[in-house]
Amino acid sequence: MIPVSNETPFPMGRVDFAAQGNVAFSSSVEENPVMFDDASSRGFPSVAHAAKRIEIEGSRLNIFEFGAGDPVILGTSYLWDMRMWRPQIESLAKRYRVIVPELWGHGGSGRLPVATTSMQDLAKQHLTMLDHLGVNRFALVGLSLGGMWGAELAMMIPERVSSLVLMGTSLADEPAATREQYSAILGTIERQGMLPDALREAIVPLYFSPSVASRKPGLPAEFDVALRGWNRERLIDSVVPLGRIIFDRRDAMDDLAKLKMPVLVMTGAHDIPRPPEEGRRMAECLGCRFVEIPEAGHISSLEAPEFVTAALEAFLAEQSLPVIRAR
Predict the structure, then answer these.
(1) 65 near 102, Cβ under 8 Å?
(2) What is the structure's pLDDT at 319?
């Protein structure tokens, strides 16, 4: 493993990090759009942060780090970047070293490495990232695709995962009906090299609850703007193949049941892509607690930030309590 240095926190702006060994660091951003700015606090989370880009399989993965302490990895959703976790970063970074990798082709990350064909491949790439950062043992919180590769990683190296939170995700295979629908959407994006208006109008509501328009109208509006500006090359070489990895994923429920670390499963009450029933099934499989997040759709971290942050803080704190053994 290669220890990381040159980690001086920096405010918003451009900072370059010197390369170390075979790990390349830079805060330069490719042509992917910034996926989210919360209207209540534009830009990055207010806590000091460091940006790194690590070369993995010929492409560069963009990573943000916040705070210090025991490592907590936050895995992002498909079509979103680091900023979907902004409310949680603000809180968790007071106690933990929060590490947020951005998906291939999203935010500042480069294209999906050409040999990537499965969720296990994504998990292995994130393991490479962790080894480069010198992270041995960590808690992992993943939403949507972040939960899928996160669970695969936990199954791959269970001894290194101290606890796991799976949010708005599923480790079962995709139901045939929705797999066919999403496959058609991906085919349209691939042919046109863009997200046409009609397609965006269909995609945006999938990520939010029906009440978001009255409670937080800025969320779907800004998400639509981000989708509109996506780089054509990254759509074709990263977004489309990542989508196929998601919807053609294996049924990993039997392997999931073997996990022994503490796990929490949470799903938005109005999550359309990953409904609460899927979360309950995973929790039953794992023998762990299931939490339904009120008034939230798929991106519960932004629709119900206070609820999600409090649940994560409580769960992570429980795992750090000393174990008192009976004599």
Answers:
(1) no
(2) 87
Strand order in the sheet with 161-167: 49-56, 59-66, 97-101, 71-75, 138-143, 161-167, 263-268, 289-293
Q: Distance between CA 154 and CA 189 in Å, rounded?
A: 32
Fold of the domain spanning 49-320:
Rossmann fold (3.40.50)
Cα–Cα distance, 120 to 111 (Å, whole number): 18
CA distance 85 to 155: 24
pTM listed for this prediction: 0.86
Q: How far apart are CA 113 and CA 18, in angstroms?
A: 23
Say what percent of the chain tops pLDDT 70: 84
Angle at 137 between CA 131 and CA 304, to 5 degrees: 105
Alpha carbons 201 and 215: distance in angstroms, whole number: 19
H-state helical runs in the chain: 86-92, 119-132, 145-156, 176-192, 197-203, 212-215, 218-228, 232-234, 240-247, 253-256, 276-286, 300-303, 305-320
pLDDT in tens, 38-76: 333 345 688 888 999 999 999 999 999 999 999 999 999
Give how far the C-alpha of residue 144 lies from the chain's centroid of Cα atoms, to the nearest Å. Answer: 7
